[in-house]
Amino acid sequence: xxxxxxxxxxxxxxxxxxxxxxxxxxxxxxxxxxxxxxxxxxxxxxxxxxxxxxxxxxxxxxxxxxxxxxxxxxxxxxxxxxxxxxxxxxxxxxxxxxxxxxxxxxxxxxx
Length: 111
Prior knowledge:
By secondary structure, this protein is mainly α. The chain contains 6 helices and no strands.
C-alpha cells in the first residue's frame, strides 16, 4: 500500500526526467529516474534526499516557467496555457514531497 502512496513521487521523477530529456540533459535524466530507488532503503536520509530532489525539481519547473513565459511574451505568442501547465507541474512536484507526512510513510522511513 505504501507504493501507491508514494506514486506521486514516482510520477514526479518521471515528469522531471521527461523535461530534462527534452532539454538533452541525459545525465540528469538518469539521476531523475534513479533517485526514487533510494526509497528502497527504509532510512530517514533516503526519504530526506528524495524530498530535497522533489523541491529542487519544483524550483526547476518554476525557473523554466518564467524563462519560457518571458520568451513567449516577448515574441507576442500565447503564454497563459504554458503557465498553467508548467505551474501545475511545479506544484505537483513540490507537493509530492509531502507524501512523507503520511503516518505509514513516516513510520516506514522513521521520520
